[in-house]
Structures are given as structure tokens and as C-alpha cells.
């Protein structure tokens, strides 16, 4: 399931638990929301890591080209 669905389902479960006085369901809903938040954070971290990897590859490629240019001039 998607992180947005997990968050919404968790909120619903938490609300249901509060209304019915079922603390277990309430806490289960909070746990579902926390899980959705963790998925979101992991997705953001993965995206940032991929972005940094691409930047590093570009930097190495650029540095390699500059080194080649230096040796061509000699």
C-alpha cells in the first residue's frame, strides 16, 4: 500500500479507537501513521542519494575531461 493510504488508514484507525475507547486500535493507528512517515522519509532519502550520486558522476566526468585537456596541451 502507498504511504498516503497507510497514513489515512492510520488516522481513521486512531479515530475509531478513540471513539470506541479501544486503546489498542488507537495505538495501532498511530503506528500505521508512523510507518507511513518512515516510508516517506526513506523515499526522500533515496531520492537525495540518487541526486548526489548523479552530481558526483558529473563531477568526475568533468574532472576527467579537464585532465585530458591538460595533457593534450603539453
Explain what the structure shows.
By secondary structure, this protein is mainly α. The chain has a domain at 49-73. It has helices spanning 3-20, 23-73.
Q: Could you give a quick summary of the protein structure above?
A:
This protein has 74 residues and is mainly alpha-helical.
Order of helices and strands: HH
Largest sheet: none
Note the gap between the termini.
60 Å
The tally of strands reads 0
Number of helices: 2
Question: What percent of residues are in strands?
Answer: under 5%
* Radius of gyration over all CA atoms, rounded: 24 Å
Overall mean pLDDT stands at 91
Q: Unreliable runs, pLDDT <50, ≥5 residues?
A: none
Overall 3D form = rod-shaped
Helix content: over 70%
Which structural category do the helix and sheet elements fall into?
mainly alpha
Region (Disordered): 1-62
Family: Belongs to the UPF0337 (CsbD) family.
Domain CsbD-like: 5-46
InterPro entries: CsbD, YjbJ_sf
Topology, pairings included?
Blueprint: H1 3-20, H2 23-73
Helix pairs in contact: 1-2
Which key phrases capture this entry?
74 residues, mainly alpha, rod-shaped, CsbD, YjbJ_sf
